[in-house]
Automatic annotation (TrEMBL), chain A:
Its main location: endoplasmic reticulum. It is found in: Endoplasmic reticulum. It catalyses: sphinganine + NADP(+) = 3-oxosphinganine + NADPH + H(+). This is 3-dehydrosphinganine reductase. GO terms for molecular function: 3-dehydrosphinganine reductase activity; nucleotide binding. InterPro entries: KDSR-like (IPR045022), NAD(P)-bd_dom_sf (IPR036291), Sc_DH/Rdtase_CS (IPR020904), SDR_fam (IPR002347). PROSITE patterns: ADH_SHORT (PS00061). Belongs to the short-chain dehydrogenases/reductases (SDR) family.
From TrEMBL, chain B:
Belongs to the short-chain dehydrogenases/reductases (SDR) family. It comes from Corchorus capsularis. Its EC number is 1.1.1.102. This is 3-dehydrosphinganine reductase. It catalyses: sphinganine + NADP(+) = 3-oxosphinganine + NADPH + H(+). The lineage of its organism: Eukaryota, Viridiplantae, Streptophyta, Embryophyta, Tracheophyta.
Length: 319, 319
């Protein structure tokens, strides 16, 4: 009864106040520059973007893997992508690559390293590796590309998309360094969006779950047992599905782009002070966030029980 | 409305049973409190407060003269000598030496922080690196150095604490804070994961979220703050360092994961509760009950922030 009046009022209010306003960012005929583009999600994004008619550039460390990637895209869609070998930790190399690639319309900051390990056991150089590549590397890439993006002649909407992870929405056992680097991307993105909105540049954060990639295969080999147990609560996805959903999100300038159902729930629970362009999505957030906080607390209850149980079993097996 | 009133007791009961980690009280009196960045600002205020509550306090900072001044000021105020250690948190070996010399730590306050606000486009990479290195990587150094002795401490029945000083900029990213927010958001990823890793050692993680606080460092920051940063952050409030210290210690003693320090902070904390742990079932109830309102308020805040950004650019173009 009261709801019938309040609900439309809420939706109308949100329609009027959501900022930044909705936008459509074309992919076809635009220059899409993907870091970490030689494998995994980056390569899948390259395939998808090429298929949608974009001009694609890939940046990665290994020239050999880049050439394989280029070949695979030539075979599947007949499109030639440009390749640039550089380590994102080296700003000068990144800047050279960005200059050679030419003005960028859609910057996909996708490079990422993940080495799960208990902080107590993890080597500092592994921690530094993740922070340097995932976080500082992203600053390098954005700093290199931003001047040209800001000065571009055609003032149509542009995008800076950062590849995060569900580990960038919740920190779990074994992921202190990885989650630190991915949470950091959100702080970067929220601030950056306020800084570049006046240049018609739109920031997106992509939040995939565990994704079927060579990177993930490597990670799984060294994952602590408890991390495996806790992470099982979210599903896993194929890279090309993630890529399709990511590009869709980038195209609509969506700030937080979840990739599966659990991801949507996570995105609403962690909406925080993230911008939301869709008044419909904003309405869903407002209506569901209370319930999802209960769900989140339930998940933590479950996880802490699993952790307790695991430690008890270890103690028993040691005695 | 009636439905809500009927469901409330059931919700309270549910939350009472599921909140994790379980509530705890962490004593300060006669325990060893180790504070990084403890020679000035919030760190020094925390040292004063901890001493006044009967703790044995050690402070770590870069400058030996400032440490000696801090030591003197505490001696004058409370007649107690704190131990001082000069080290740069970016230097792991130096931190480890200091931690070993200080002796087993009960309450580790990771408080060092630098902040240089600037639009990413204008900010030097060395400044960005500075903030990531000190605020985020430095925190990893401090925790890694202290963790072994905290985990193997003799009296394991007494709960220990690792408290990280974040910022409201670690809850929402604002114009001019891309690097600072990145480093502070990162602390949350670290903390959420770390809590799951150390709960079995009876160690509790706290994240403190101060607003702008009257400290020497803040005075420096205000001089160079972009105008827009000032405009948008004015709603967060301004606190005195000793107020921050009081409320911080209260939160650490209650083993709270998220510690806001003023009303705006509490609203921010509820809005950004996400999947963070909550050991108080009453606070959990508030989080659930106020989540929707908090998201609406957040969207209004963003509407206002983006309007300020647009207005400022419009005025700049006019001039």
């Amino acid at each position: 009864m009261l709801l019938l009046i309040l609900l439309p009022l809420l939706v109308l209010t949100l329609y009027l106040i959501v900022r930044p306003r909705p936008v459509i960012i074309p992919i076809k005929d635009s220059h899409v520059f993907i870091t970490g583009g030689s494998s995994g999600i980056g390569l899948a994004l390259a395939h998808q973007a090429a298929f949608e008619g974009a001009r694609v550039s890939l940046l990665a460390r290994s020239l050999k893997k880049l050439e394989e990637a280029k070949e695979s895209i030539r075979i599947s869609s007949g499109v030639e992508v440009s390749i640039f070998a550089a380590d994102v930790r080296d700003f000068d190399a990144v800047q050279k690559a960005v200059k050679n690639a030419g003005p960028i319309d859609v910057l996909v900051v996708n490079q990422g390293i993940f080495v799960p390990q208990e902080l107590e056991k993890q080597e500092l150089d592994e921690i530094k590796f993740m922070i340097d590549v995932n976080l500082m590397g992203s600053f390098n890439v954005i700093k290199a590309a931003l001047p040209l993006m800001k000065e571009r002649k055609d003032r149509g909407p542009n995008s800076i998309a950062l590849m995060s992870s569900q580990a960038g929405q919740v920190g779990i056992y074994g992921y202190t360094a990885y989650s630190a680097s991915k949470f950091g991307l959100r702080g970067l993105a929220e601030a950056l969006q306020q800084e570049v909105i006046s240049d018609n540049i739109h920031v997106s954060l992509i939040y995939p779950p565990d994704t079927d990639t060579p990177g993930f295969e490597q990670e799984n080999k060294t994952r602590p047992e408890l991390t495996k147990i806790l992470a099982a609560s979210s599903g896993s996805m194929k890279a090309d599905k993630v890529a399709k959903i990511a590009l869709k999100g980038i195209r609509s300038g969506t700030f937080i782009v979840p990739c599966n159902l659990e991801g949507h729930a996570l995105a609403i629970a962690t909406a925080g002070l993230s911008p939301q362009r869709s008044f419909l999505m904003a309405s869903v957030e407002v209506l569901c966030i209370g319930f999802l906080r209960i769900v989140a607390l339930y998940f933590q209850w479950n996880w802490y029980k699993d952790i307790e149980k695991w430690h008890e079993m270890k103690k028993v097996s040691e005695n | 409305m009636l439905l809500a009133l009927l469901l409330a007791p059931f919700l309270l009961l549910l939350l009472y049973f599921i909140v994790r980690p379980k509530p705890v009280t962490i004593p300060i009196k006669n325990r060893h409190v180790f504070i990084t960045g403890g020679s000035s600002g919030i760190g020094l205020a925390l040292a004063h407060k901890a001493v006044s509550e009967g703790a044995r306090v050690s402070i770590l900072a870069r400058s030996l003269p400032k440490l000696e001044e801090a030591q003197k000021s505490i001696r004058l105020a409370h007649g107690v000598d704190v131990a001082i250690f000069a080290a740069d948190v970016r230097d792991y070996d130096a931190v480890q030496r200091a931690v070993n010399d200080a002796g087993p730590i009960d309450v580790l306050v990771v408080n060092q922080g630098v902040f240089v606000p600037q639009a990413l486009e204008k900010q030097g990479l060395d400044e960005i690196k500075f903030m990531i290195d000190v605020n985020l990587m430095g925190s990893f150094h401090v925790i890694k150095a202290a963790l072994p002795s905290m985990k193997s401490r003799k009296d394991r029945r007494q709960p220990a604490s690792i408290a990280l000083v974040s910022s409201q900029a670690g809850q929402v990213g604002i114009y001019g804070y891309s690097a600072y927010s990145a480093s502070k958001f990162g602390l949350r990823g670290l903390a959420e994961a770390l809590q799951q890793e150390v709960i079995s050692d009876n160690i509790y993680i706290s994240l403190i979220f101060p607003p702008d606080t009257e400290t020497p460092a803040f005075e420096e920051e205000r001089k160079i703050r972009p105008e827009l940063t000032d405009i948008i952050t004015s709603s967060g409030g301004l606190l005195k360092a000793d107020e921050v210290a009081s409320k911080t210690l209260d939160g650490i003693k209650a083993g709270n994961f998220s510690i806001p320090l003023n009303l705006e902070g509490r609203m921010l904390t509820i809005a950004t509760a996400g999947v963070s742990p909550q050991s108080s079932f009453l606070m959990a109830f508030l989080e659930v009950a106020l989540a929707s309102l908090a998201r609406i308020v957040s969207l209004f805040f963003l509407w206002s922030a983006y309007r300020s950004v647009a207005k400022w650019h419009f005025q700049k173009k006019g001039a």
